[in-house]
Amino acid sequence: MRAKITYAVTALVLVFYFVLVGSRGVLLIEAGSPVTVAFGVAVLVLPVIGVWFLWKNTQFVRKANRLAAELDAEGALPVDELKRTASGRIDRDSADEVFARRKAETEAAPDDWRSWFRLAVAYHDARDTPRARKAMQRAIRLHDAGTGPHTGTA
Hints:
The protein is mainly α and 154 residues long.
């Protein structure tokens, strides 16, 4: 719940920032000189990109959470079996061991969104965020396509 509140507050702050920057862009365009119009258009591009990025990220998080809820309902969410250091950080060797199992599981069932979801979690635990995101995107695509075990289509 705390993560959702943090995300919502951050999104609201970003939207406020986008509105503020966008209004400055409009003011520059309204000034009417070629230089201010050019700067105004350039300034307006930033909030447009920001809103697009925020929207795509929010959609990704919502879809990943939907998959997590479905796995939870099936009793198939990955269990946290990682060893931790005294400070609470994940032990690297432990993360590598779990990752190797998850990778083998995914290679054995490449069309199963569940194995890709679990692989994404293993990548995240191994601190490989770009690959975690790509694995989760693959899980989402497979889920939305309705392929894999338990779906009745493959």
